Amino acid sequence: MFDGVTGAVNADELIKLALKEDITGEDISTNAVINCYKKGTVKLICKQNGIICGLQVFERVFKLLDGTTQVEFYCKDGEKVAKGRHIATVTGDIRVLLSGERTALNYLQRMSGIATYTNEVCELLKGSKTKLLDTRKTTPNMRIFEKYAVKTGGGNNHRYNLSDGVMLKDNHIGAAGGVKEAVAAAKRYCSFVHKIEVEVENLEMCRQAVEAGADIIMLDNMSAEDMKAAIKLINGRALTECSGNVTKENIKNIIDCGVDFVSSGALTHSAPILDLSLKNLCPVTEEK
Hints:
This protein is an alpha/beta fold.
């Protein structure tokens, strides 16, 4: 699911926290109607068109409750799925199927919604040189899942967290006393292997960032005209990124500006879920 052992371990810990949030003591509803092991199956059904993402997270929820639970998938992450499609069958202790249902669906619906929305935005950028990036505007304790969903939908990940890269935003610049001072301080502090990105809000700040030797210049909340002027001013001396309330509805205004990257917090904070459901739970008669 995620690259490296650390990613998988982190995912498990977060899934356990989600399960503890939903089951603080017991699942009263389930225990009231079934108080012993009984094998059953339930179907995962897609209720609208989109990109599926998070199948292994969905499976892991049930596996953490009971390692003997079996999930048979009929598609893979990143595939387009249509309304009415039977995506998977989950088989195991009926108590586990009932208790894990909401947590498993919460992950899968959220991640699939992000992948679907990201894919729609990527389609709008087709034919341009501009690459789509996510941001750190993620749901607390969901970043590893949400950034994976962006990649599954065809987007690219910006820095994962504050330890990943240098980005000097307006308040960093204010704290340092100006653009040139902030860049100079970052160059003194950081290893040469770290690129320095600077957020600018106008052409004068852009000029200062270029003169200071910034590696990446983020054009924040600029008009299309100012972005074009800024890119002309930069003239290839730094990579360019556009940011600031970028959504599926307005991204077309950016395509012709010629920026290298466009970052959008909407990918993770505003994507609607993909509607999915677990249906048709039924007992299974075990062979003797």
